[in-house]
Amino acid sequence: MLVGAGPVEDAPAFGEEVGETLMDIKPGLPSTDNFQHWPPWRPLVVETARRILDYTGGTLVMPMTVLVEQYWREIGSGLAQHDVPVRHFVLHADQDTLRARIAGDTVLGPNSPFRIQYLEPYAEAARTWLHAEAEVIDTTHLTPAQAAQQIAKAVKI
């Protein structure tokens, strides 16, 4: 299993799909600005990954941004309990590059407040724990294809 993290990912991710499923529950779950704060989200991500791998085998790539260390620990330990191997990559870029990418984003729209609000939490996580937990790919001067090639080379895909 490969897990990628970073505030600039545009690929659809089943971690987000799990969160969107939780958002659709009626009556709604307690109000939050981030579905990752709902306690069921982390074990559901683990269970979804485990079930997919049990069914398909092979390698599962999970683009996902987790900036709360406790949440990453829950997911990581949950995957380890099921003997799911993890290669955790962080797609890093400096703050100026991130701001420029957000300004030119055609997916969520330019200057997405959602993305901007996670710039400082990402920087804090990177400084305090995230970069120590992962293989960091500095994408500041890379195209998405070049970043993907670096990860593929690292895992020998």
Describe this structure in words.
By secondary structure, this protein is an alpha/beta fold. 48% of the residues lie in helices and 11% in strands. The protein has seven helices and four strands; from the N terminus they run βααβαβαααβα. The chain has helices at 14-23, 41-56, 69-81, 95-103, 113-116, 119-130, 144-155, and strands at residues 2-5, 61-63, 87-92, 135-138. Helix 1 crosses helix 2 (41-56) and helix 2 (41-56) packs parallel to helix 3 (69-81). The longest helix is centred in the N-terminal third of the chain and has 16 residues, at 41-56. The model is unreliable at 5-12 (pLDDT under 50).
Low-pLDDT sequence parts: 5-12
pLDDT averaged over residues: 88
What percent of the residues sit in helical stretches (DSSP H or I)?
40-55%
The major beta sheet can be summarized as:
4 strands, parallel
Estimated structural class: alpha/beta
Assembly state: single chain
What percent of residues are in strands?
5-15%
Count the beta strands. Answer: 4
Radius of gyration, in Å, reads: 16 Å
Taking strands numbered 1, 2, ... along the chain, how are they ordered across the largest sheet?
2-1-3-4
Order of helices and strands: EHHEHEHHHEH
The end-to-end distance, rounded to whole angstroms, is 12 Å
Specify the overall morphology: globular
Secondary structure tally, helices: 7
Summarize the structure.
The protein has 157 residues and is an alpha/beta fold. The protein has helices spanning 14-23, 41-56, 69-81, 95-103, 113-116, 119-130, 144-155, and strands at 2-5, 61-63, 87-92, 135-138.
